[in-house]
Amino acid sequence: MSAVSKPTSSTTAKSARLIVDGKEVELPVIVGTEDEKAINIASLRGSTGYITLDDGYMNTGSTTSSITYLDGEQGILRYRGYPIEEIAAHCDFVETSYLLIYGKLPNSQELEEFRESIRQHTMLHEDMKSFYNGFPRDAHPMAILSSVVGALSTFYQDSLDPRDPEQQKISIHRLMAKLPTIAAYSYKKSIGQPFNYPCNELSYCENFLQMMFAVPTESYEPDPVFVEALNLLLICHADHEQNCSTSTVRMVGSSNANLFASISAGICALWGPLHGGANEACINMLNEIVADGGNVKKYVQKAKDKSDGFRLMGFGHRVYKNFDPRATIIKAAADKLLKRLNLKEPLFEVAQELQDVALNDDYFKERKLYPNVDFYSGIIYRAMGLPTQMFTVLFAIGRLPGWIAHWVEMHQSSATKIGRPRQIYTGPTIREIVPMSERP
Ligand code: ACO
Fold first, then answer.
1. 378 φ, ψ (degrees, to nearest 5)
2. How many other C-beta atoms can be found within 10 angstroms of the C-beta atom of residue 87?
């Protein structure tokens, strides 16, 4: 393929030419506001009969988007143009959510209205509590989260039309408000404690901690250091452009499925250990190393051994091949929290050792495998006393505004079509059915 024209400063072609089977086609070039370039191949099959093939979407853009910009080589992450470091320093999670969903920082009145609306929707319908009795006591909270979020569509049938702005708005506020309640109830159920109703005097993060840790027999004051760390973690997880779960939300939403159904699917995608499940997998791995005598070198060796399927959980990233800016922010929070709590558990020592070994080992350096956000978030959640199975749930609460923002953006775009990739079929060509009696 060759560039058709070479404009002066940016050297960006206006189109690209592809020669296939001796036929030349001209394909338009799309340039983003950060000078990212794409060749639009929408007409390729129609004009040549060819499709493109790109396992894992390593090089395929599924949409244009104005929500989040990230540059994996330079370690840049910006929500709506604002650097993540600035947002983490100046905004709280609810304000960040407003920014992502509505595309601008709110003024004080807009923010107060948003907070107030979320506060008013924190309770679950009483009938929903009975769902929790149907799950096994040891059910994974991600399965519960996804099921109960999907079930919201049965209780709020008045707000399921994704094309109606008023219905969109109410379902967004309901979901933002109820997800922490749904999450905390799943934990309370698993340990046999009564559910705590949300307390609307508290902030978003304080309220979640209260629903998780308060018991009716004692008064509970959320620890401000935990609140700060949780707020930071939720902000750092709030969006990450077209990752696996966000792409899932967009894909499901593209069929005009309602918001609750689309987010429920995103929660399932996030659950996997190669995505949001990595923070849980990371702590499980650290526990395994501790139980095995704390021999970090052995596990580093296993991760490097291609005949061994083992990978160091919490290391590596599809996009960040230099450093993950979220990991930098969260590492500082983790260091602060561990110093403040003065925890001497072997798990934290193993984590430190693992980090040092991996950062200095050629295998990891050559492949640019750095500790990612899940490595440090798992450590913080563990230090806060959150149960391991809840780690990915926390990630889901953080990622919710990002999922919503993408779902809304998709519905607002006139370019949106139902997501329907193509394939290259590699199975048998036509053959006849052999009668049962003649089959080997
Ligand atoms: N441990 C050991 N080796 C690794 C690791 C790891 N964690 N990650 C990648 N590698 C190696 C691969 O074996 C491969 O080596 P090779 O070139 O010799 O074959 C090379 O590094 C490139 O790996 P890929 O799998 O091609 O990288 P990809 O971009 O597809 O995968 C991923 C990224 C899934 C994050 C991967 O690094 C991984 O599995 N990490 C562990 C799970 C994890 O922490 N996931 C969380 C991601 S962050 C998030 O979702 C918020």
1. -60, -40
2. 24
The pLDDT mean for the chain works out to 93
What is the residue with the minimal CA distance to atom 50 of ligand 1?
A: 275
Contacts of range 114-120, beta carbons closer than 8 Å, 24 or more positions apart: 114/173, 117/173, 117/177, 118/94, 118/173, 118/176, 118/177, 118/204, 119/177, 119/200, 120/177, 120/200
* Average of per-residue pLDDT across 236-245: 96
* Candidate of 318, 355, 357 to mutate for ligand 1, largest count of ligand atoms within 8 Å of Cβ: 318
Give dist(CA 260, CA 153) in Å, integer: 6
95 lines ligand 1 (CB under 6 A): no
**Region 306-326: what's the mean pLDDT?**
88
For ligand 1, say whether the CB of 274 is within 6 Å of any of its atoms. Answer: yes
Cβ(225)–Cβ(380) under 8 Å?
no
Ordered strands of the 82-83 beta sheet: 68-71, 76-79, 82-83
Cα gap 36→417, rounded to integer Å: 23
Three-state DSSP state, 190: helix
* CA-based nearest residue to 191, from 137, 141, 248: 137
Please state the separation of Cα 249 from the chain's center in Å.
10
282 class by beta-carbon count within 10 Å (0-12 exposed, 13-18 middle, 19+ buried)? buried
Answer yes or no: are the C-beta atoms of 383 and 228 closer than 8 Å: no
H or E stretch covering 97:
helix 93-102
Å from CA of 68 to ligand 1 middle: 23
Cα 300 to chain centroid, rounded: 27
> Which 8-state DSSP code applies to residue 49?
S
The answer to whether the CB of 184 is under 6 A from ligand 1 is: no
Nearest to 2 by CA among 24, 21, 23: 24
Q: Model pTM greater than 0.70?
A: yes
Phi, psi of 250 (to 5 degrees): -65, -40
- Over pLDDT 90: what percentage of the chain? 76
